[in-house]
Design a protein that fits this description.
Length: 214
């Protein structure tokens, strides 16, 4: 069984997930922790549950999902794993802050620890996450699927009753529709943990999300 803890982060209310099993190993997915209280909430949850973080995973390279990469490196000595097509974004987080938010920041920008590809397997504890390349919101967007536990982390590709933006430089409506068609073929009972907002299921989205069909 997997335990999934959601911590809502930064000014865009991004979902950071801490995912663990009975071995107490865990992965941190999309650490967007910008404010001190968000960073402390992550530390507190991990310490109180005696967890050992072994991977920092990014669903894509946008700033709101990576504000906390430097914090995670400082505290847990982990650097992010990210798809090859978004890896360059981690080198310009401070520029993203200026371009998207008009913010002058001095964020630490850890280089990727691991470059991911479609169908790669991320192992921790007694579980595995399969990397699914889901371009469209960004060129290197991915989802992380745990087939055994029937859960998937979709980043900004799939939300409850909505989808991610495609108007960024490397976004593509055509590509995201192809990605969503692939996700729609997953079993209805797979629980979806998106990058923003509430969780849902594949079945709920096939039934009610106008961008998904079979």
């Amino acid at each position: 069984m997997l335990n999934v803890k959601k911590i809502e982060c930064n000014m865009l209310q991004e979902n950071c997930y801490i995912v663990s099993d009975n071995t107490n190993q865990c992965v941190i997915i999309d650490c967007g922790a910008y404010y001190t209280e968000e960073q402390q909430a992550i530390i507190t949850y991990i310490k109180e549950n005696n967890l050992k973080p072994i991977h920092l995973l990014a669903t894509h390279g946008h700033l709101d999902h990576n504000f906390g990469n430097g914090f995670i490196e400082d505290v847990f000595s982990l650097r992010p794993a990210i798809h090859e097509d978004d890896s360059n974004k981690l080198e310009n987080l401070n520029q993203q802050a200026k371009d998207f938010f008009g913010m002058q920041t001095n964020l630490k920008e850890p280089k990727p620890e691991k470059i991911l590809h479609d169908k790669d397997i991320i192992s921790f504890g007694n579980h595995q996450l399969k990397v699914l390349h889901t371009p469209g919101h960004s060129a290197g967007s991915v989802a992380y699927l745990c087939e055994e536990e029937k859960i998937i982390f979709t980043g900004d590709t799939l939300f409850r009753h909505s989808i991610g933006r495609t108007d960024f430089k490397d976004g593509s409506m055509f590509a995201i529709i192809q990605s969503l068609r692939m996700l729609s073929q997953l079993p209805d009972d797979i629980k979806v943990y998106p990058g923003h907002g509430l969780s849902t299921t594949i079945g709920e989205e096939v039934a009610h999300n106008p961008y998904l069909d079979r």
